[in-house]
Every structure is written in structure tokens, then in C-alpha cells.
């Protein structure tokens, strides 16, 4: 019973523990009640319908719960699903920590934390260094546990840190190749650029947009945090240092139509935007190709204009 | 010598006082130095070239200075200009206040200030009222004297207040017609929406973008001011009241491609955006048609997709 | 049995009279015949499927008929529906007027008619006044009973008049605030702008596009009507008065891509276009928020770029 | 002195009669008056400046006049121009008919008139035939003498007829190849589609937009004419015949953003639109390549997205 | 049993031979296996589901097979379908050639071949003639049997030749009307422009994109073929003849966003592009209107911006 | 006389050798002949006008010639220019090699050649390695001396190699960070992607588009070269290796509207496209900021949507 959901073959009998990620009560066309459940463990998601659901099932089989799932693996419209034969909440002695059933970044939190600290050391400008340190002392935990998005790229626990640190790595390498780039401004921007997501999103499980997330958005939210930090540290908001740090973060979506209120007007802002797109793109392609057989095309990738990508034959 | 620049006819001899708005030293194709000057008084602008400029003229005839201008009115490429015969700084006993030579809003500062106070009284929600009052106690003077833009609409002294108060009037009328609109939220948004311009722009004379204006923009700047005010007043940034006040202001450009980081997601935010466009549009058309003869078309209006507008024959 | 369809709770037994708005005969995947019916009363619409439909049901349960509907209220894919237990045509003594089951404008026809007459009195220009009066003497009834659209905004009986009169009210208020606007041209435009809909659409019940509606469109159709009226009144089509009246109406969609053959080139044409958008937008948001709980977001609104709008908590 | 303007070589002395097409009085930068004149004969246009213009020259050298022009051919910014040595109005015994100096369609009016009549005979549907005949009995002369546009394609005398008849020819050929096309509807559409230009434009010399042209546009204007003709002929505007005839004409710009209030929804409407583009495109390319040397690229063609076209080496 | 699939009425019993075009094994929501089959003969396609499919049915009822199909004709979501009662592979003595069950171009292969040869004779330029002949000697068979597309226009056996020859016919006629067009270049372009489809697509049955089709596309593929042919014939790739032949083919999609790497820069390239659109458009409209009743609108046509087209009443 | 053109101050007397890059003979408005010359040395360009040019100057002062230039440095419309006092061809004993007066890549040809060889060694796939080696044995010299563009980025001698090798460096670093990328495919793509420019452009001096460049474009031209190389090496064009190598090169502009006939459909193709944009962007910004004072904004950069970039104060 230690098999992961993704490891079962078609038509194989499933008997595993799983986290309920979403659960929606629906009617069939002919009026019968069922629950459409998204089961999940660290190998990914598997949907299934519980037919003729009873009232106490409707009440207890809710998002965040861990269950023992039994059934048969099949597929519906080319997507895997489970034909449920039985599902119940776990009991004493069985697994009970949601965190064990979530997809995690491929690097441990502690390692990411060390990386973060190493990058902060590269920021020698005292204004930038203190703003960055103040914000990470405040939001360190959330930074390490939050996803980078609800859908699209890096939508797993730790995704925010994993994505931000990947960009910081790119920033470090590229500013070595191009000496004209201000390395520490790039790194500060890489670490801060998506930090507003810890206010925009509800958390790593059943991720939703908060009200502030919907109505203000993570770009204005991280700017708010930088402004408040600078205010508390008594830094002058009209100084060039503060203005360009905020600019690099505000402009990171690159285009106004992607939600940045200003377009990049510093070389570092333009480069940070491009590195953000590069890392997000690679993560989306990698994640899609991981589920694709060699010599075939992936599913359409929403965040890349619905393109399908081909997996080279000998590249397994 | 009391005639205004716009009152002279073609080929008439000019002898008036004027403010130098811009002055650029250039070479002719054959290498001679001249100064391209934009003269201005409260009737508008008039360009002219000072040929064979001498060094002390280059040093003294600079933006912000008041001069006595003599010459002949002509036109170049369909635009009025002056053929300068003489130009010198004003002397003791002659006019010396730049403010007397600027285009002003058609309403007095003191009246606009009263209107502002009356509108603030309509905001009975204590959170919104205190934020608005705090910001206007801080920026009242600049609000009453700044233009609303460098070019385009309301680009005159007092334009910021004149534009904001016009929208507030529209907001008041329209929320009377549509009872479903929250009048005080609309009015608070109308008053605050462009307040970031007092940081974005350099002031009413020879208006330029500040560094913060170019790299952060007036939308994020007014949000910064609201955040700092709320912080000082100990209001909760996560409360619905604060979130929707910020939203209404952040979303007022309506579309991401116009620089709002979020699109309107409140009925009041959508309406404020539309009233902003309506007032700006009417001001641009009015200003263009003021210079147009009945029965003919105006110049192209940049802010309205370069359309020309027709002035109805009997509408003078 | 006086309860309206929208007043039933989930799982409650329904027993009400209703109008059949649409009825489509379909096969299940396994080949059985059923009728997919849209029931309707003045509280809104409710879909339901009549399984194993018999031939005489297929013949009699058609759009425009009034039925007694019995069943249970449920939902399918988050949309309310009814599980039909019985449905039959009404009999003698039961309701038989489709008009009683339609959604109506929130103002009575007679009141709207008075408002219309009041607005016509404000049009003192004799050419415009006579054209407007001629057309409303011809189309008064249809104007008061037609919807303003098949979908989107004001798609209820009387919607055309309700929408046109709202804009006329806005026009009157706004031309009071901005004296440079020609009030009577704006009002004439407001009343006429959508009048072509009485030819474009089939009527208030089961609204469809007519052939002329599909191939010519309401903008060219209202222009046709103005041209014919002017012709009969012996007005000169080359006079400025006639040209600008037609222009204001032809340009009211604002952009070529929205179907206006010319863009607004009169201040009044631009303002009329913006007021049209403002009123349509407010109506769509109001209608969506009426079905939304406080503190949550509405469904996506098609006519507003599929945005969802938030309903403020204390705004019930 | 029989040489045409286009036949002179660079640096050759010019002595020819020419029509003044446009004449604008301007100031040099140093304030001297000159007239910028566009001379023209049936070989094309040639601009030149008359320096130090005297008052009586300003009064007499105006558009529509025929002059004797003397000077030297040169070029300014890669465009041919004339260095004027002398210019005066023609005297008794010298040419005096502007029509002799205009660019004309490459086919005679009388031939085009015959072609027109032949095409009308192909329209056997009595409704369409009578509408077409009524309109051409009314506008025959203007149709044969007007240009098809102010700029862009077919902007010469007779261009409207030349363009419309070319499309009718294409329509005839193509409906022979594709039997599913209604030939007479296509031909009626080809003849009528641009007829509104006789109201939209001021005429073949110094062509301007009329007020109706600017505010209503040739598409709604031709629809107006068809409606009035049908009205006078007592045809039913709601008949399919009338609706589809109007549709074919209204939709001929193909896209809403090009000014058609409806997109083509008949096979014949779509085909007419494409033939219109085809003929206009070929005319623009031909006209540009006529001025281009073999083996080089033409100037940019505004109406074809500013593309330059290459002239094949052996294709003279 | 000689009836074609399209000839059966609703509810009529079907007993016909058919080709299996696609066959997908799926699960019902409740987990039962069925095969979703697309049956086809030269009258068109008909989908149906084989419920409770057995293993040997799953193995044998695959694309390309001919079967005897029994069932009842019905419809599902407005699309015709068959309720299968029995389906089995054909036996000895019954039809066995897939080609007999495919939709074919309305002209015979042999006739199209003759037309092709006639057109090649019109290409007298020896370079173009030899390149065209070389490629058609190589790809003649595929050219005559391939469809012109997977979906959209001319997606039937022989569609590639039928479409290319229609354009060649248009090219011949139009270059007769406009003498300035190089007829043989146009014809060579018409014949070659889509020839890359024989590499891009898998063939006339169950048409798929090949790997080269997906990753290189038919435009670069036909260019590759022309380059290789010219190389083998020892023609100079830098000669104007070769450059313009390749250009006409490379640019035939007209716009970069439609996949041409260069926009048309020869009059013939622009015209070829427009003729391609014209023929494809007419074919799509014809095909949609063939399935439409007079006086009603067709289904939306994907390749024409999802427009619906109206079928004129008397046009059957 | 060893000073470079860019080293002179305003108003300083110039006496230097320079290359004539472009020379156009023009007329003044008053009809006098002058030559508009672009002088150039390895510090950049400097325009100047030679007034009252004589015939033998017009004949000898042509692009590619080296001259001794004397005059005074000034500026015209904010751009530096020279007021020429004397200019003559260089004589025996004075400089005569155009190459000494061109802007060169900041790395020597020999070093770039070594780098190129090192990168080729990293391509171990024998198909890709042999195609790359074949093409570089053929075009090595041109690759090292050509610019990467006529305008925009890397428009200097050696720019093609400098740009391609920068991308190869990025490719190497980034495929170290992301192990899922195929490093050798990325490097092969980086080296080949712009190689078609050696056919598209005329060379490093007075760079123009060739006929093949204008009508076919560098993307189809490099594909042509790969196809011919593969053909000669007897590689199968249908093999996955050849298809994906061509794809990576064909797709490198990323979007169809930028001239790629296919969009990236391999992870490596997408990444190569992004690295191309990154390097081009950094080069354009660096080049603009090199001419910008700290604390001010650069000129608009055409290739970056006409944005201006700010130069940080302490970043000299």
C-alpha cells in the first residue's frame, strides 16, 4: 500500500492514501448526487467521482482531509481517473499530515534557505541589503512554503522559493558574463520580485486568491511591503536607490498588459523580466514533458500560448 | 502693451511681456547659433527663434524668466510663430511673477479648495474620510496648483484639482441617478485617483517627469501614499475598506495596457474609470475646439486617437 | 402556488406556472429522446430536461406556451435546474398571458412614455424635433416593449426604452455640468441611437435577429429610418443639421470594430458613445451583482471582457 | 513647348503649361513669404516653391488655374521638384481647360459608359436592375468623372468608373469559373459599391472630403441612395432581394475596422470584398512600379502596409 | 444496401458499408468501455458509439478498416449520429478498398493530371519550367491524391490538386485581364505553392501532421524541395529567376503571422496570395452552404473567422 | 592628427582621417547642390554636409573612400555633426584600409575563431557536428567579419560572430543550470541561427540587403544552407536529428510575426529564442547607455519598443 497514485497502471487496482485537494458536490443529468473529488499525493493529482454520495460523505470528504482510496485506474477523455470502489477518512495510526501528500519543490526547504542567505550576502549595498533582510526576516517561512502560482508554473509547495532562487542563480551567472549588469540589484530583484504572492495567495493547499490578491495583485502588494520596510528603516523613498529597487520589482512583468504599472527602464529591470520568463517557461515545459512519451507531443501548455512541445526520442 | 500673445493678428507688430517656457540652443544647417524659444502667457504659447544669439543671451534667456518681447506675428508650417526683433529680461517696475503668465484652471484656487472640502464632507466612512483628509492636509497646496498632465488634458496650473473635482461632480450626479453606486467610495476615488501626480511631475512650470515619476509612475505613487497614511493611522491594510479604496485608485486607468496593475473589479472602480475618460475627453475636445472656427475641423487630438473634431456652425 | 421560480430553495419541491422560452428536442448518448426546456417567469430563467418525451409533448411544449411545472430544484454544473416530475399546458382559468411571465423593465411603460415625451420637448431645434417625433409616432409601441439586446445588457421587455431614457437622463445632467455640450443634440441622439433594434430584433419573446438585423444591422437600419423620415419631411440631407444628427447616431458604437461606420467626430457624438457604454456597463454589473452574495465575486460578465465583479460586504 | 512635366530630365530647362493643383502660402524660417505650389499635367505632379512671392502672385496663382511654368528640374529629398524661374497665368490663345491637365483613367469615358451599360444588361433580376438603373441615370456623369479616392488607389479622373468596371469584369470571369456564385448580384454590387464617393468627395480636381463624406462616409451614403431609390420605386425594404443587395454593398470593406457596419455574410459579399481588394492592390502596385526601374524596389505603398515591391529585371 | 450514409433520414434504419476513419476507446463516467467511431463513405462522415465494446472489437475496429454498419440514424447536440446495433469487418466478396469510401475532389484524377500538364506548358521560362517538371515528376501521384489540409478547406482526397489547379485557372484568367502580371510566374507559383503538404501531411486517410510537418511546416518544406531541385539541375540559387520563384512560394500566406517568413514583395506574390485566399474561401463557403437550407444561415466557418453565411432563398 | 571623431569636443577644430560610409547628393531648398556625408572611424559615425559641392567632389567622395576631414564639431537637432571646412581623398603615405576605420566587435577575430572551434567540439552528435563543421568551413571568414544586422543590435564588423558566440556562452551556462536541456543542440542552434545573414546582407561596409535577403530572408536562407549541407553529406532529411536541428534554427525568432515560419515546439528552440532576445537586448541597451550620462535617460531604442533607459548614477 506504499504505491503512489502516478505509479499505478491502467486497469490496476488502487489502494493508497491520498489528500483530498478539491471536492465538489454535483448532480447527474438525471438528478443524482455525486462528489467530484481531486485526490493527490506527491506524485501528482488523480480525479474521481464518488457516485450516489451519502450525506455524511458529503460532510467529511472535504479538501485538506487524508483518505484511504480504493478503486481501479482508468481514463476519461484521455485523462487518467479513478473508478472509486471505496473511500474513507484515515484512522489513528494511518498518515495524517497533508504536507506529506503535497508536491514539493525538488530541493529541501533547508537547502533553499541556505541558498537564500548566500544570495543575500552578495547584496552589499546597505539600503538594498537591509530592505531585503527585513522582508525575509518577516516572510521567510511563507517564502519557503508557498507556491509561485495557483496554476501555470511552479504551482507546488516551495515553488515560490524554488523559482526565485533559480532566477537569482541565472542572475548571478549572467552578470558574470555581462560585466555591465549590476549584479546585486539583479539578485535583490530576483529574490523580491514575487514576494507579494505570500499576500496574494491563500497558501500551498487548495490555493486561492485572497481579496487583496484579487483587487490589488502581487505587484502592488510587494511594492507596499518594500515601501513599509523602507519607511520603518527611515530610508528616503525619493533616493535613487529606493526608486530603482522598486522599479526593478514593479516592472518585472515586462509589459503593461501583463500587469506591471511601468515597463522596464533600467537594463537590470529588462534582464530580470527576461530571466523570469525564461525560468517560468523552462519549468512549464519540463513539467509538461515529464508526462510525455519520447517521440510524441506534450499537452497544450496554457502559459506558453497553448503550444505543444515535442519530446526528443533519445532524451529520456 | 497689455495685449496677450493670442490676441495679435497675423503680421501685427508684437510688444508684450511673456514667460520663457522652454529655450533650446541650436545650430542652423550652416552652423550658426540660435535659440529656439517658447514664449507663453495666460492666453497660450508662441514659439520663435532668436537668430545669431549672443553668449549672454544664451545665459540669461532661460526657462522661467519673464521678458519683453518685440517682433512680428507670422506662421511656420501652419503654426503661429513670432519673428523676433528684440527680446530682453524685464526690468524693475515691470512684471516679475511667472504665475501671472501661466494658463490657469478656469476656477480660482480658493473656490476649488471649498469644493474639495465640501466633497470630503460627503465621505462619511471614517476610514476613507481620515485617509483622504490626511493626504489632503499633506498635499493640499500642490493639489491646487499642479497640472493634471505634462501634455494631453488639463495641462495647466490647477488642472489636477480642476479635473479631480469635475469627476467628483460627475460621481455625485451619477450616483444620484444610479442608487446602486456607493457615492462616497466614488468621491473618495475621484479626489485621490491622480494625487500621485504631485510626486510624478516636477510642478506647474516647464513640467517634467521626476525620476520617481518615470520609474514608478503616479499610480503606484498614490498607492504608496495611501499605504503610508493608513499605516500611520493604524488602519488594517487587509480590511475590506482599505483594499477597496486602494483598488478603486489602482484600477482607474481601466486597462492594464494603460498602466493600471489590476482591471476594475468593483462597480465603483469601473464607473470611476469611465468618468475619468469622460472628463479628460471633454476637456481635450473643448480645448481643441476653442481654437477652431465654426464649420471646420480641429487639429488632430493625440489623446483621442488623433481624431479631428468638427465644430458645429451655430455653436459659438 | 404563487411562488416565483427564483424563490425556491435547493431541493425544494416546485409547483408554479411558467413560460417556455426555448425547447429543444435532443437524444441522450444512448439514443433516447428528451426535451431541453428553458422555463421562465418574471424572476428569471430555469432550465430542465423532460426525459423520455412523448410525441404529443414534443408538439405542444413549445416556446411561447405557459405551463404548470412540477419538480424539484437542484443544480447542474453550478447552475440551478429543475428535475421535472410533471409539466403540462395551462388550462382554462389558469394564467395565459406570456407578458405576465417576462422580465420587465423596473419602470412602467406609461411612465417611460411620459419621460420620452418630456425629453422630446427639450429638443427645440425644429428639424431634429420633427424627425424624432415622426419616428416615435411610428415606433412608439415597439420602442416601449422591445429589449435593448438579445443577450448582454437590458435584455428584458422594455429594455430598449429603459436604456435609451437612462442615457437621455445622463445626457441632460452632464450637459448641465458642461455648458459646451449641445444638450438637445445629445438627447435626440440618446433617444434615437438604438431605435434600429425594433427592426433588427424579432420582439421581446424568444428574441432572435431578423434577416435585416443580421445582414444590415441596427446602425444602418436606424440611419435608413432617419433618411426616410427626413425625405418625407422634405428636409435637405446635405444640411449640417441632418448630417450631424445622422453622425451622432451612426457613430454611437465609438469604434469601427464595434460596428459604427464612422468614429465620433463631434463632441456630442463622443459623449453619447461614452454614456451608452456607461449605462450598459452599469446595467450589466447591477444585474450580475443582484445574483451575487456580499463578499464574493459575480459570474464572469461577457460584455465586460469576462471580468468578475466583487460585491462589497455591507452593500446589500 | 509640348513636353510633359514627367518627360524632362534632371537639370533640364522646363518650359511647359501646367495646372496648379494646390498652392500654399508659407514663411521661411527667416520670415520671408513663398508659395509652395503643386504643378500637374496628365503625366503627373511636380512641386516647386515660388520664393519672395508678391501679393498679386499670391492672389492669382491658385488651385485650378493653368500657368506657363519655366524653371529647372531638380530634386529635393529624393523627390523631383522644379526650381522656378518664372510662372504666369496663361493668356488668350494658350490652353485653358483644366481637364486637359488632369490624369485620366486609361480608358475613355464613352467606352466606360458602354461597358457600364453592358454590365447592367446582365442584371436580369428586375428589382436589382431597376435600382441600379435608377441610380446610374441619376449619377452617371459623376460616376464617369470622379476619382475612386483622394489618395491611395485610382485617385485620377474617371478612377471611380475604371475601378468599379474592373471589378465587374473580375466578377463576371470568376462567376463563370465558380458556378455557385450569383453573377448578377456580384455585378450589381461591383457597380454600386463605391457610388457613395460621388457624395463623399468634392470632385476630380483638388479632391476633398465633403462634410457628409467626413461625418457619414461613402458606405452609409450609398446605402442612403439605395434606400431612397427603393422607396421611390416602391420596393419592400424587408424583401430578401433588397436586404441582400444592401448587404453586399454595406459589407464590401470586409472588416468592421475598415468601416463596414457588418461583415460579409453572403458568399457574394465576401467575394466582392476580395475582388475590391485585388483590383485596388493591383492598381496601387502597378502605379508604383510604373515609376520604378527594373531590378530595384518601388517606394513604400501606404495602402499595402508600406511595403516596397520589386520590379523584375526583364519585365519592362 | 447501396445507400450512402448521408442519404438516410432521421430515425431510418441504416445498413451500409463504411470506412472507419477514427476509433477511440473511452470509458463512460461510470467506468464502462466503449469505442467512439467515425464512420465515413464518399457522402461524408457519421459518428457513433459502440457501447460495452469487447476486446476483439477494440482490436479489429480500427482506422482504415471497412465494415458493415447496422443501426438507426439519430442526432446528438444537433449533429447526426448513428445508434449502432451491429458492426463487423467486411468479408470476402464485400467491398475492401478504402479509396471507394473517401470523399474525392469533384474532378477525376486523370482530368486533373491533364489540366496540370496543360498549365506546365504555359510556363515557357526554362528555369521555372524545369523546376516545376522535376518536382511534379517526383510528386505527381501524391499531388493528385493528397488533401489540401487536415481540416478547413479542400480536406478531401485530391483536394491538393483541385485547389492548386483552381488557383492556376484564376491566375490564367486574371493575368489576361491585367497584362502587367507575369502569367507564367503566377502559374508556376499556383502549382507549387502547397506542394510541401505532401511532406507535411501523412496522406489522404486519417490525415495527420508528420514530424517534419509539425516542426518545419509546408512552406519551408516546399522551399527545401525547390532548393534541392535547383541544386540538382545546377541552377544558380542567386539568380533573380530562382529568387523570385522561391519568393512567390514562400510569401503565399501573405502575412508573417500566417507563417510566411517574408511578406509578398512582388506583384505576382501578392496576387497569388489573394487568389489562394479567394479559392480557399469559396471552397469553405460552398462546402458549408451545401449543408444549409435556403433562407437560413450555415454553421460557423472556422477558417472565415467563425462567420455564418446566409443561403439565398432561390439559390438551390 | 591621431584623434578619433568621437573624442572631439563641441566647437573643437577637427583634423582627422575618416571613412565615407554614405554620401548622398542633394539640393538645398533654393536649388544648390551639396553632399550629405556620413564620416566614420572606429569611434563611431559623424555626419556633415559639404556645401556647394563641385562635380569632381561628387565623383570622388563616395562610400568606401578614406578622406582627410577638416572642420568644426557642432550639433544639429541634438545630434553631433561636423561643419566641413575641407575634405579630400587621402594621398600616398596616408591611411588607406577601410577596415581600420570600421567599428569592430570588442573581441579579436582570432579569439572569436578559437571560441567557435571550442564550441564545435562540444557538439558530439555526429550529424549535427558534421553539418556545423561543413557550414563553418564554407562561411568561416564571412561569419567572423559580418555584422549581425543593418541597424539595431550588433551592427558592427564581427557583430555576427560576437552575437552568436555570446548566445553559445549563455547556452552553455544555462544548460549547466538546467540539466533537462540538450546542451549540444542549443549550441549548434546558437552558432547557426543567424548564419543566413552572410547571404542576406552585402557585407560589413555600407551594409545593404541583397536581393535574396529581401525576398527570401535570412531564416529561409540558413535553412537552405543546412538542407544543402545535409544533402551533400547524405543525411536523411526525414530523420529526427535533421528535423529538430532545422526546427531550432527556423523557430529562433519565436513568433510568426517576427518571421519564423514555425513557433518553437522544442524546449531548446524556445530557450534559444529567449537567449537570442536576451543577448540582443543587452547589446542594444549597453550601446545606448554608453552614450548616456549617469543620472539621465538614453535615447529611444528602436528595437526595444522605443523605450528610453535610465543610467544609474554611480554606475560609470
Main attributes?
Hypothetical protein af1432; homohexamer; alpha+beta; 316 residues; five-stranded mixed barrel; OB fold (Dihydrolipoamide Acetyltransferase, E2P); elongated; 5 strands
Main sheet attributes: strand count, strand direction, barrel closure of chain A: 5 strands, mixed, barrel
User: How many runs of DSSP E, i.e. beta strands of chain A?
Assistant: 5
* Number of separate domains of chain A: 2
Q: What is the fold named in CATH at topology level of the largest domain in chain A?
A: Hypothetical protein af1432
Distance between the termini of chain A: 28 Å
Can I get a quick summary?
Chains A, B, C, D, E, F: Pfam families: HD (PF01966). The structure is a homohexamer of 316-residue chains. In chain A, 41% of the residues lie in helices and 17% in strands.
Amino acid at each position: 500500500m506504499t504505491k503512489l497514485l502516478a505509479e499505478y497502471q491502467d486497469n490496476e487496482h488502487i489502494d493508497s492514501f491520498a489528500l483530498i485537494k478539491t471536492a465538489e458536490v454535483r448532480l447527474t443529468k438525471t438528478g443524482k448526487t455525486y462528489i467530484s473529488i481531486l485526490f493527490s499525493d506527491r506524485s501528482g493529482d488523480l480525479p474521481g467521482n464518488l457516485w450516489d454520495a451519502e450525506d455524511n460523505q458529503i460532510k467529511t470528504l472535504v479538501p485538506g482531509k487524508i483518505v484511504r482510496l480504493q478503486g481501479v485506474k482508468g481514463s476519461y477523455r484521455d485523462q487518467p481517473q479513478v473508478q472509486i470502489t471505496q473511500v474513507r477518512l484515515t484512522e489513528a495510526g494511518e498518515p495524517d499530515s497533508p504536507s506529506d501528500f503535497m508536491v514539493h519543490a525538488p530541493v529541501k526547504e533547508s537547502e533553499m534557505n541556505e541558498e537564500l542567505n548566500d544570495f543575500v550576502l552578495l547584496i552589499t549595498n546597505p539600503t538594498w541589503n537591509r530592505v531585503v533582510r527585513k522582508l525575509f526576516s518577516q516572510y521567510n517561512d511563507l517564502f519557503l512554503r508557498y507556491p509561485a502560482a495557483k496554476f501555470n508554473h511552479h504551482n507546488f509547495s516551495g515553488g515560490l522559493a524554488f523559482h526565485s532562487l533559480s532566477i537569482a542563480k541565472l542572475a548571478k551567472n549572467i552578470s558574470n558574463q555581462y560585466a555591465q549588469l549590476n549584479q546585486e540589484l539583479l539578485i535583490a530583484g530576483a529574490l523580491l520580485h514575487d514576494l507579494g504572492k505570500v499576500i496574494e495567495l491563500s497558501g500551498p493547499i487548495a490555493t486561492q486568491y485572497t481579496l487583496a490578491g484579487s483587487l490589488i495583485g502581487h505587484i502592488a502588494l510587494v511594492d507596499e511591503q518594500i515601501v513599509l520596510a523602507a519607511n520603518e528603516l527611515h530610508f528616503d523613498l525619493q533616493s535613487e536607490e529606493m526608486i530603482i529597487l522598486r522599479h526593478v520589482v514593479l516592472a518585472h512583468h515586462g509589459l503593461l498588459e501583463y500587469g506591471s504599472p511601468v515597463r522596464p527602464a533600467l537594463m537590470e529591470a529588462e534582464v530580470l523580466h527576461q530571466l523570469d520568463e525564461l525560468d517560468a517557461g523552462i519549468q512549464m515545459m519540463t513539467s509538461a514533458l515529464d508526462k510525455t512519451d519520447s517521440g510524441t507531443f506534450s499537452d497544450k501548455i496554457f502559459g506558453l500560448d497553448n503550444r505543444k512541445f515535442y519530446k526528443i526520442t533519445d532524451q529520456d
